[in-house]
Design brief:
- It is built from eleven helices and 39 strands.
- A hairpin with a 5-residue loop joins strand 8 and strand 9.
- It starts with 5 loop residues before the first strand and ends with a helix.
- The chain binds uridine-diphosphate-N-acetylglucosamine and calcium ion.
- Calcium ion binds next to loops.
Length: 477
């Protein structure tokens, strides 16, 4: 017999009403990635023949969120239960007959690991389960938790034979107390699933077709259903509410923290450090409490990120120090640079090697050359700044005239005195000096000095003789 080929169907068309959100449930991000993206990544590692994601009729946002994932979308309209969704997915998947396998996964379990899917596949391959393998877990029996859990209950007869799954909403009190629950991940023989789905009826409290009812149908049709028991329910926890979303976030965040620490990164306080899954951090880098590294970011080796630094979608080199409160979005920082405290890099800021960006400095769409310094209270926008440039405190590039943006060029070795306004477009030549307090409106030649401020006026003995205070004192005499 040829090797069975495995097709994956991910159910992601539900309304997610319990989230009370305008955003579809499965698109809420967990550790920087949409929920359903985590499920896709776990499934991908099994090298399936195809991955189909079942989405609702209105799925523009699903399409854009899943752009770049190697999946096909299949539309379920209207969403009328997981059984119906599986049917839509099965049809689109290309799985056929009694040789192909179909792995059906709820799209709302972002903690799912590929190891769990492999365990299910291994159970199927062992040959006992001729129809399907279901995944189950045990809910803790503390504080009546099992009675309030939203999972479907695995109902057995007195000799322990698995009979059917009863959804929480359809359970009586005795069934609600059953701690063994359905994990929402199933591996079916394609033909068996196809035949079982035809028998489903919406005779339940939701009036929906339940995929879970296939267990009983398959048994009645003479197929055997195997069970893969999972020891860690948290991993397969379905996210239905914001509270469960926060729980998933905590799980994935601590998993990522663990992975980083094993790779040689120091986290001073893992519980208050948030690193998205799609982030890389090099060895011997130290992350202080409150550091947030968002998806699409990489940080090199030997960096120190002090408290409350946030970096999103940016590339940070090695030996970079970021002092407290620094915020970086869509920027590049090269090796050896120092930033902050309270520096802000906006999109397309590029900080070259060994450059320094100090407190309350904002940089947008500008390149700060090698070893250059902007140490205090400065705005640099649309600027091309060479190497070894010194930018004094309070320097502002006036890059916007109300209609257009203009460029400032400061060539290598320029010295800009404090409190200078540079009205772009302007070019300051190599090695030129700008006097403090200048408003620069014209190009400055290389090696020149530009001073653009009013001259100082001195009036001798003015305070004691001519000031209003002095006059008042004279009148009172
Ligand atoms: C489901 C199971 C339950 C199991 C639990 C595990 C059923 C009937 N129940 O319950 O036994 O313990 O998962 O987490 O399957 N979806 C569609 N189309 C639909 C309805 C749902 O694509 O018409 C998708 C949802 O987007 C979601 C997934 O299917 O990703 C599961 O649906 P959900 O409503 O969350 O099922 P649960 O009530 O959690
Ligand atoms: Ca769910």
């Amino acid at each position: 017999m040829p090797q069975p080929s495995m097709h994956v169907v991910i159910l992601a068309a539900g309304d997610g009403t319990r989230m009370l959100s305008r955003l579809p449930k499965v698109l809420h991000t967990v550790a920087g990635r949409p929920m359903v993206g985590h499920v896709i990544e776990a499934a991908r590692r099994l090298n399936p023949a195809s991955i189909v994601v079942v989405v609702p009729a209105e799925h523009d946002r699903h399409r854009s969120a899943l752009d770049g994932y190697p999946v096909e979308l299949a539309v379920q309209d209207p969403p009328s239960g997981t059984g119906d969704a599986a049917q839509v997915g099965l049809r689109a998947s290309g799985a056929r007959g009694d040789n192909d396998l179909v792995l059906v996964i709820n799209g709302d379990c972002p903690g799912l690991r590929s190891e769990t899917l492999e365990a299910i596949a291994a159970e199927q391959a062992s040959g006992d389960a001729t129809g399907a393998v279901f995944l189950s877990g045990l809910v803790a029996h503390v504080n009546g938790e099992s009675a309030t859990s939203p999972y479907g209950r695995m109902v057995r007869d007195t000799d322990g034979t698995l009979l059917r799954i009863v959804e929480a909403a359809d359970c009586d009190a005795e069934q609600l107390a059953i701690p063994e629950v359905n994990g929402g991940i199933y591996l079916f023989v394609s033909g068996v699933l196809e035949r079982a789905l035809q028998e489903l009826r919406p005779d339940n409290s939701q009036g929906e077709l339940y995929l879970t009812d296939t267990l009983e149908v398959i048994r009645n049709q003479g197929g055997r259903v195997g069970l893969c028991r999972h020891h860690d329910l948290a991993e397969i926890d379905g996210v239905n509410t914001r509270a469960e979303l926060a729980r998933a976030e905590e799980l994935l965040r601590s998993r990522k923290a663990e992975e980083l620490m094993l790779a040689g990164v120091t986290l001073r306080d893992p519980s208050s450090t948030s690193v998205d899954v799609d982030v890389e951090v090099g060895a011997d880098t130290i992350l202080y409490p409150g550091v947030v590294l968002e998806a699409g970011t990489s940080v090199g080796e030997d960096c120190v990120l002090y408290p409350n630094v946030r970096v999103a979608r940016s590339r940070i080199g090695s030996n970079v120090t970021m002092y407290d409160g620094t915020v970086i979005e869509d920027a590049v920082v090269e090796d050896g640079a120092t930033l902050g405290p309270y520096a802000r890099l906006r999109p397309e800021a590029h900080i070259c090697e060994d450059a320094r960006v100090g407190n309350f400095v904002e940089i947008k769409k500008s390149r700060l050359g090698r070893g250059s310094k902007a140490n205090h209270l400065t705005y640099l926008g649309d600027a091309e700044i060479g190497a070894g440039v010194n930018i004094g405190a309070g320097t502002i590039t006036c890059n916007y005239d109300g209609a257009n943006k203009h460029t400032t060029v400061l060539e290598d070795g320029v010295f800009v005195g404090s409190n200078t306004a540079i009205v772009a477009p302007v070019r300051v030549g190599r090695g030129a000096t700008i006097g403090a307090g200048s408003t620069i409106t014209k190009d400055v030649p290389a090696d020149g000095l530009a001073v653009a401020r009013s001259r100082q006026v001195i009036k001798e003995d003015w305070t004691s003789k001519h000031s209003p205070k002095a006059k008042k004192a004279r009148e009172a005499d």
